[in-house]
Specification:
This protein is of the alpha+beta class and 93 residues long. The protein is built from three helices and four strands.
Length: 93
């Protein structure tokens, strides 16, 4: 997994890339739904409740940002989180 942060004039973009199995194109629009689990065959105790990406999207939107994913089967996924730039906090002594 690799994470990069791309500062821009009006926003910061965080990109997280993995080399996993990828996500089928027909599933991408649903992965941010609450309780949606991509792999339904996994039991809940092994696969989570399906809330993680819904929480990420909600928190990102509360801060005025956006989140999206680009994925290819067999190659992995890239997750893009964009947050508006704000004033920097003063440095601590």
């Amino acid at each position: 997994m690799r994470m990069t942060i791309n500062p821009r004039k009006r926003e910061a973009e965080i990109v997280v890339a993995d080399t996993g199995v990828g996500i089928p194109a027909e599933e991408i629009e649903r992965i941010f739904e609450r309780f949606y689990r991509l792999n339904r065959s996994r039991s809940r105790d092994r696969g989570g409740a399906g809330l993680g990406l819904a929480i990420v999207e909600h928190v990102d939107q509360l801060h005025g940002g956006t989140v999206r994913v680009v994925s290819r089967l067999g190659e992995g996924s890239r997750w893009f989180l964009s947050l508006p730039a704000g004033p920097c906090a003063p440095a601590s002594p």
